[in-house]
Amino acid sequence: MKNIQLYFIVGLATVLFFSSFEVQAQKKCKFDFEETDPFSGKTKKSNTSTLVAGLGYETWLVGWNREGDTFYMGMLATLQGEFNTTINQGDSIMFKLADGNMVVIHAKESSTPITNVSTASTKPVILSTYRCNYTITKEELEMLSNSVITHVRMNIADKVLQKELKEKKALKVQNDIKCILK
Length: 182
What we know:
By secondary structure, this protein is α+β, with helices and mostly antiparallel strands. The protein has three helices and ten strands.
């Protein structure tokens, strides 16, 4: 009888312990922007996730955006080199998930890169930056929130760019998506 009581107490303690982590994770939702429209009553909020950063001056940032029950994703991608191709309306971004599923979203509009020259030490570096919005549904966001993203593939006209996400970054992105769904 004492063994059963001991197992019960240990089991209960384990459940309470992990429940506290879930509550703590839910408290970590910080938004870049959050306000309620005084006329419509709709809440607008946004947060930013870094998909790629670092070596080679390449960065891929995504903004998860919500206005009421409407969602969209903004992408800001800076690529090293001169890119003269346009992201066409309908071009896709694919997210490969750890559970084997894939989420494919499409550009809402066309985007032409802005190219500039930056300096790294004494060497000039050419950078091309794309800024584009993509349609995304609540169901697609829920899929992304249920499994971490392992790979991202971006189609820019006839070019295909693909990156692998490290686990730590993928978990941060997953948390950002969970937050935007709340």
